Automatic annotation (TrEMBL):
Belongs to the FAH family. Residues 173-345 form the Fumarylacetoacetase-like C-terminal domain. GO terms for biological process: small molecule metabolic process. It comes from Novosphingobium guangzhouense. Transmembrane segments: none annotated. This is Fumarylacetoacetate hydrolase.
């Protein structure tokens, strides 16, 4: 799937979408409305500025033309820029169990299957039956400790505090069609298909998109203190294709009831498909967002990965070893109201290097004369 329009949801002409494209001059925030692309850079030079000003009226921008024509000649970038990239982990019972499996297998994929069967039988039903932070969860925690079954992952799965971490540096995310990277020294890894919500600086959710929180199961399984190496590598965070802004036709309720589909096709003929149902999330998305802002400020806003139900266990290399990526895998993450995020896997060392940081972005905006005019427009 290479055509940009084919990556949009079927009802894309009925919604309002926020994104970034490059037509050859540099990153440009755009709105997609009613089949037309609008350049919003003279209103606000960055997506963060556009969200801060709530400048979501396409009429304030410059119509570039029909989406089929404009997007055909543009590079589609990650739809966010200056926002802090946060991720919530262990927000589904299945993913909680898989993290415990990684921990008990010490990051060794060959041991995972033996651990998985016994663990699911002993605590799988219990984890699914309690709400995080409740008295029932506290009682389950006490029982698991007594039984020698407690884990740091179960703490964030059923305890009062969610796992929320910084996934990637500002401006390092890649968009649909781009290469995604896994460390060359990882031999147990997978995509994490997720819905991502965009908020303004005050913690108000303004829209949603799709994300791939690429994960190295061997690194995190060896030690949770290796989370940075497991999560934050070149090209290891993909977001897109566009942020669908909330309106009367698309609300947080649609996020909470969405299905996220995953399809992985390998050069070796391997095929894996799966789905993640947001209705099974253990914590409401707005609660996770609140936990980001409860003791912190984010003046440029936040994008928050909500976690995934899907942890691939289908064997690929050998029986009992489960899934891991191979170079050239094509990963497609889709949801009917958000579209499709497609990326091809390489090592982080071989993926295109990240070279456009904050300094480079503002030099580009200044050279294009966007900073002064946009500041005046927003004010």
């Amino acid at each position: 799937m290479t055509d940009t329009l084919s990556m949009l949801p079927a009802d894309w002409k009925d919604g309002l979408f926020l994104g970034r494209i490059d037509l050859g001059e540099g990153p440009t925030p755009v709105l997609l409305s009613g089949g037309t692309v609008y350049d919003m850079s003279r209103v606000a030079p960055t997506v963060a500025d556009l969200v801060d000003a709530a400048a979501f009226d396409p009429a304030q921008g410059k119509a570039l033309g029909a989406a089929k024509d404009v997007l055909a000649g543009a590079t589609l970038l990650s739809p966010i820029d200056l926002q802090c990239v946060k991720a919530a982990g262990v927000t589904f019972a299945v993913s909680a169990l898989e993290r415990v499996i990684e921990e008990r297998a010490r990051g060794d994929a060959a041991k995972a299957q033996a651990v998985r069967g016994g663990l699911e039988e002993r605590i799988g039903g219990s984890i699914r039956s309690v709400g995080p932070g409740t008295a029932e969860a506290a009682a389950l925690k006490a029982a698991l400790i007594e039984d020698g079954m407690w884990s740091q992952y179960l703490e964030v799965a059923i305890g009062p505090d969610a796992e929320v971490f910084t996934k990637a540096p500002v401006l390092s995310t890649v968009g649909t069609g781009a290469t995604i990277g896994v460390r060359s020294d990882s031999d147990w890894n997978n995509p994490e298909p997720e819905i991502v919500i965009l908020s303004d600086a005050r913690g108000k959710a303004v829209g949603a998109t799709l994300g791939n929180d690429v994960n190295l199961r061997d690194f995190e399984g060896r030690s949770a203190l290796l989370l940075g190496k497991a999560k934050d590598n070149n090209a290891s965070c993909a977001i897109g294709p566009f942020v669908r802004l909330f309106d009367a036709g698309y609300t947080m309720a649609d996020v909470e009831n969405a299905e996220v589909l995953l399809r992985i096709e390998g050069r070796d003929g391997f095929l894996l498909v799966g789905e993640s149902r947001m209705s099974e999330i253990s914590r409401p998305p707005l609660d996770l967002l609140h936990q980001c802002f409860s003791e912190h400020q984010y003046p440029d806003g936040v994008v928050l990965f909500l976690g995934t139900l899907f942890a691939p266990t289908q064997d690929r290399e050998a029986p009992g070893r489960g899934f891991t990526h191979r170079i050239g895998d094509v990963v497609a993450i889709s949801s009917d109201r958000l579209g499709t995020l497609v990326n091809t896997v390489a090592t982080s060392g071989e993926a295109p290097p990240w070279e456009t940081g904050i300094t480079a972005l503002y030099r580009n905006l200044a050279a294009r004369g966007l900073l002064k005019t946009a500041a005046h427009a927003v004010a």
